[in-house]
Design brief:
349 residues, alpha+beta, Phosphorylase Kinase, domain 1, Aminoglycoside 3'-phosphotransferase, Chain: A, domain 2, 3-stranded antiparallel sheet, 48% helix
Length: 349
């Protein structure tokens, strides 16, 4: 999103939350704009300007998130191990404040936390994967009366494929033509319908987990806007994609560590693991191609979904994901073999 009238929006935020803050950009999110708010040099809150082009109903989104946070806080196995994010309402009790065409929300700053954009060791990867597995385990008994994902057609490969064709059919860019061909040749199969369906994170990437700033211990899982019902393997696939993207290519040791961590955190059954086997192998390939398509489509329609600093950045992101997609494809046989070798040890009896 563009930073139009950002100064006046900060003034509005301070009025609604009743403090004088010094704001600084936090992270490099692709969807929302995030800012750290300090008072007298001390971090207090994290403010987010939500991308209304992405979410159908921002108010409902935040009410659902509050319901989710209550559930996580009551799960002692989860809440005693991880810090559950805390929404900070405005002075009039609103969880989301609208100003002109912008929506703002606030979170309590999690002290002693750090976001590692790149995981450097297999121990870090396994720890992070286990944390996301624990998150999924905590949601096994999450049964809200109603729940609606506020991002239309989210993680729908067929929808993204058609969108790319619509925006890219007239493109003369050779890469866009290659991507359309790859998307058209990819099997029309949802690899994330197998296995038991439960609530998952939905955006399971490295930067949505905070570590303790003095150790490699996972401290908190954040960015809960895409929690929805799906196979747990989607989170695994996206996590593997994210870890490999941040390191510039497919790392076999990281794949093994991610699998170990997820299965230990989730405490998966033998039956569910066997039902999920194909998704664990093909899932990272599918979701990486999916993201390459999404970045390219957003570039072609003018960068309305993902944040960019300049036009062309989404196309570069797409190309990087496409290269990783090809690496995953080339490693498919290896992933199948390593899965066969590991599954007996990884299954919790």
């Amino acid at each position: 999103m563009a930073d139009k009238n950002l100064g006046s929006e900060f003034n509005m935020v301070q009025r609604f939350w009743g403090r004088d803050y010094v704001f600084s950009a936090l992270g490099d999110g692709h969807v929302n704009d995030t800012f750290l708010a300090r008072q007298k040099g001390v971090p207090e809150l994290v403010f987010q300007r939500l991308n209304a082009n992405v979410f159908e109903n921002v108010v409902l989104l935040q009410h659902q998130t509050a319901q989710l946070l209550t559930h996580l806080s009551r799960d002692t196995n989860f809440s005693e191990r991880f810090v559950v994010p805390e929404i900070v309402p405005s002075l009039n009790g609103e969880m989301v404040v609208m100003h002109e065409d912008s929506y703002w929300r606030a979170w309590r700053f999690i002290e002693g936390s750090v976001c590692d954009e790149r995981l450097e060791s297999i121990e870090q990867v396994e720890t992070a994967a286990e944390a996301f597995g624990c998150f999924q385990r905590a949601l096994i008994d999450f049964h809200p009366e109603s729940w609606r994902l506020q991002v239309p057609n989210f993680q729908s490969f067929d929808f993204y494929r058609e969108e790319l064709l619509a925006f890219g059919k007239s493109s003369k860019n050779p890469y866009v033509k290659d991507l359309i061909l790859a998307a058209d040749q990819w099997a029309h199969e949802d690899y994330f319908k197998n296995g038991k369906q439960s609530y998952i994170h939905g955006d399971c990437k490295v930067t949505n987990l905070l570590f303790d700033d003095s150790s490699d211990v996972a401290k908190s899982i954040i960015d809960l806007d895409t929690v929805h019902l799906r196979s747990w393997t989607l989170d695994f696939a996206d996590f593997v994609r994210s870890v490999c993207s941040s390191k510039g290519g497919f790392n076999r040791l990281f794949y093994v560590s991610a699998l170990r961590g997820f299965l230990r955190g989730k405490e998966i059954s033998r039956e569910d693991l066997m039902l999920s086997m194909d998704s664990l192998i093909r899932g990272p390939i599918a979701i990486t191609l999916m993201l390459a398509i999404r970045f390219a489509s957003d570039h072609l329609r003018g960068d309305v979904y993902f944040n960019v600093k300049e036009h062309g950045e989404n196309l570069q992101r797409s190309l990087e994901q496409y290269r990783l997609f090809k690496e995953f494809q080339d490693s498919q046989l290896w992933m199948s073999e390593v899965f066969d070798q590991m599954r007996t040890d990884l299954i919790k009896e």
